[in-house]
Amino acid sequence: MAQKDVGNKIPIYKLKKTDEVMKYYDEWGEGNKYDQDMVDWNYTGPKETAEVLIKYEKNKDAKIYDAGCGTGLVGVELKKHGYSNFYGADLSQKLLDLVPKGLYQKLDKVDLNKPIEEEDNFFDAVMCVGTFTFGHVKPPALDEFIRITKNKGLICFTINEGIHEEYGFDKKIDQLKKDNKWKEVEFFKSDYIASKDVNAWLGLYEVIK
User: Fold this and answer.
1) Distance between the two ends of the chain, CA-based, in angstroms?
2) For the chain, what are the domain ranges?
3) Which of 74, 119, 121, 139 has CA atoms 20 to 30 A from the CA of 62?
């Protein structure tokens, strides 16, 4: 099946190298253009994933790691439902600087393609929305998410449909199931950025330790 021509709709999808992606995000963050674009594009990823997570994570004090938090859109959505114990990580300091003050317990500049400097079994849940996409974070990050999540904790993420197979996320997800590292709770095609005809897989998995 031919891939949709997403590169022309969303230019960042053309970028393959981390430093190119970083430069793009830093410029995107100027004047808060990033957040405005998300509104204009009807980017539903944060809202959809937050709604999926809260169906299963009922503890409003749950420690939630927002991997690739950007400007804090996931935190904003979760806060609407009464959650507040968020820890954010992103590669772009420009986007982190745009996160609403006081929304997260802490914010760290992190490359999620490298080991995460967080304790084992520390978080009740990990959210990763809009980060598994072209030129961004690769499948091995899922191992780190599992490591920092408690037994029976939840990992909720989106994967841009264009890289699901190309980057090997499909195989990684299956391998983690076979290795009994997690079990599938939900996995379905989400609207994601419907206005640009860009879809993503949305997954929720329970960690097994």
Assistant:
1) 37
2) 6-30+41-55+62-207
3) 139
What are the structure tokens assigned to 120, written together? 């084992």
Output the CA torsion sign for 138, 142, 147, 150. positive
Task: Fold for 6-30+41-55+62-207, please state it.
Answer: Rossmann fold (3.40.50)
C-alpha distances (whole Å) from 102 to each of 1, 77, 84, 123 are 45, 15, 10, 19
Q: Is the alpha carbon torsion for 189, 54, 46, 154 positive or negative?
A: negative
pTM of the model: 0.82
Compute the distance between CA of residue 20 and CA of residue 25 in angstroms, rounded to an integer: 9
- Contact of 129 with 38, CB cutoff 8 Å: no
Q: What pLDDT, on a 0 to 100 scale, did the predictor assign at position 133?
A: 78
The residue type of 70 is G
Q: Which of 57, 42, 43, 67 is nearest to 186 (CA)?
A: 57
- What is the tens place of the pLDDT at every residue in 50-71? 999 999 999 999 999 999 999 9
For 97-127, how does the pLDDT look when each residue is reduced to its tens digit (9 = 90+)? 999 999 999 999 999 999 999 999 999 999 9
Q: Is 196 exposed, middle or buried (0-12, 13-18, 19+ CB in 10 A)?
A: middle
